[in-house]
Amino acid sequence: MASELSAQLRNETGKGAARRARRAGQIPAVLYGHTVEENLHLNLPGHETFLIVKDNPNAIINLDVDGEKHLVLLKEIQRHPVRRDILHIDLLAVSRDEKVEVEVPVSVTGEPAPGTVVNLEIFDLPVQVSPLEIPEEIVINVEGWEEGRVLRASELELPAGVVTTLDDEHDVLSITLPEEMPEEPAAEEAEEGEEAAEEEAKEESEE
């Protein structure tokens, strides 16, 4: 479902105009794509925009630009390297009947067989899908899966209308035994090692 947002056209470009917009509580943005004749430089309302994009990397927005409607896909967010606040946003104008390529987060539910662990090979799944059908996440249920089970891209259960662009044989997830950690030396062995080192140092000092 698309979110609703209003934007203002920004006639000025450059770092100075962007800084002024941010001081006013707005987020500089650019809108581009085959459904617009030329790139549009915009100012987005800061708080409302943050609420839409904070948990949705593929947000779809019904954008009102001075009374003109656009269906847009969130493409990129530039953040401050320290404060992490939003500095700039790229928006892609799309149409309802086209397919877009996005990456959808992958999550795991359920518990595999006792003593095994889940190895997720793909954290974001590349897919092709209609803009209005982009899922928030792809959920994989591993309840009861045994050690040695491998899930490949061709075996994924995807929502209707969603197609992954991964090769069919690409590993997405596997169930394995946990890696064994090397055992720490026993206390006595550690003490013997320290004593040997001290003895060696003493002999070298006497030579």
Automatic annotation (TrEMBL):
Write down the SUPFAM superfamilies for this protein, in alphabetical order: Ribosomal protein L25-like
The cross-references to HAMAP family, in alphabetical order and at most eight, read: Ribosomal_bL25_CTC
Q: Which CDD domains match?
A: Ribosomal_L25_TL5_CTC
Recorded GO MF terms:
5S rRNA binding; structural constituent of ribosome
Please state what the protein is called. Large ribosomal subunit protein bL25
Which Pfam families does this one have?
A: Ribosomal_L25p, Ribosomal_TL5_C
Q: Where is the composition biased (Polar residues)?
A: 1-11
Query: A GO biological process this protein is involved in?
Result: translation
Q: Which gene encodes it?
A: rplY
Which NCBIfam families does this chain map to? bL25_bact_ctc (TIGR00731), PRK05618.2-1 (NF004131), PRK05943.1 (NF004612)
Instruction: Pinpoint the Large ribosomal subunit protein bL25 L25 domain residues.
Output: 5-91
Q: Tell me the organism.
A: Varibaculum cambriense
